[in-house]
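Bit of a strange request maybe. I'm writing a small parser for C-alpha cell strings and I need a real example to test against, not something I typed by hand. Could someone generate the C-alpha cells for this chain?
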Amino acid sequence: MVNLPADFVAETRRIMGDERFNRFLGAFEEEAPVSVRVNVKRELSHLLTSSPTHLQQVPWCEEGFYLAERPQFTFDPLLHAGCYYVQEASSMFVTHILRSLSHLLTFSPHVALDMCAAPGGKSTAMRSVLPEDCVLVSNEPMGNRAQILLENITKWGALNCIVTNNYPRDFKKAKLKFDIILCDVPCSGEGMFRKDPNAINEWSMQNVEKCWQLQREIVADAWECLNPGGLFIYSTCTYNTKENEENIRWILENFDAEVLDIPVDPSWNITGSLLEGFDAPVYRFIPGITRGEGLFACALRKQRGERGEARSERYDKQRFKGLSILSPLTSPLELRSLATNGTQDLSPLKIEVDYPEAIKYLRGEALVLPPDTPKGIVTITYKGQPLGPVKNIGNRANNLYPKPWRIKSTHLPNEAPKVLLNDE
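Reply from user aminoacidic:
Good idea to test on real output. This should exercise your parser:
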C-alpha cells in the first residue's frame, strides 16, 4: 500500500468524501493506464492496425488511444518521427474543450498561447485541433524544460508554432494579445502520485500554499494578454480546492470572466466541483473513477475590454522584440525538415532504412547508404516517416541528428515496439 502524507490524506478525504476517496485509494493498487495521441498530420493509414485490438480509443479525444501495456517507447523510431505523443489520457481533454468551444471564436485567424507548455503534450494537442492558419505560441519559462519543449514541437512537425522561453510577465510587458490562452499552471503535483513516487516525497501543505499564490500571479499576467471574447483554459494536475475551484472563484471575482460549460458524456465519469457552495462547471479527473490520472480543468471567456491586435500574419520576429524565441523556424538548418513535417526538406532525396539502421541513426552514428546515393543532404526515413537528415560524403553519411535528442542507451531490441504498427 502506498504511503501518502497524513495531511494529504486528511485534506483529500475531506474534499472528496469517503466513497470517492476510497475509490481513489484503490487506484494505487492498479497499474496506471498507458495512452498515446496520434499525429493526425502524418500519413499513418498504412501503420495503424486495421482492427486495433491493442488500441482502445480515449473517449474524449478522437486521436487518443489506450495501450494494453507500456512498451519501450524510447526504441520506437515512429515516436522520434513525431507520429504519436505519449500523453496521459486526462490531459487530452484539452482537445475536447477546444472542439466544443470553437464556435465561440468568431474572429479568424486566431493566435493562441500555451503559457507553461513543457514538455509539450498540451501544445501538440492544441496544434492538432486548432485551424492551420492559427499561430500557436508555446512558452516555457524554465530554460532546460524549454529545450525539451522545442524538441517535441519540432518532432511533431508543428507548422505555425513559435517556441519561446519567457516568464508570463514578459508577455504582459510586450503587450502581446491572444485569442486563446492555456495556463496549465505549475502545481503541487498531487495528480502525479500514482506515476511518480518522488512527487509524494516533495508534497507538503506549505508547497500547496506557495503554488496557489504563484498560480494567481501567472493568471493575472496572462489575463491581460487575452482579447475580449477570448478563451482561457485553466488546468492543474492536482486535487485540492485551493489550486483549483478556489482559484476559479478568485478569477470570477477579480476579472471580467464567465465560466463556460463543456458537454461531457456521463460514461466518462468526470467529477464536477468539490468546493462547497461553488457549482460552476469544472472538470476533475480522479483515478479510480475516471480512466486517467489527476487533472482539473476549467474554461472561461473574457467578457469586456479593448480588443488588441492578434492577427496571426502580424506575429513575426518584430512582434516578439525583447522576448526569447526558440522556435523551430529559427533552428539550425538540419531541423527544418523535421519542423515542417517533411514538407520543406532540405533535399527531396529520401533513403528508407530498416529498424536496426533507424536505431543507429537515432543514436547519432554514421550510416552507410547505397553506393549510388548522391552526395549531399539526404533525409533518412523509417516506414516512410522522416527521422532527420544526414550529409552523404560517399563512403559514409555523417549524422546531423541533434546531439541532445539522441538515444543514449546501448541496448538494441530485436524488433520495434508495436505501438502503431500493423505487423501481424
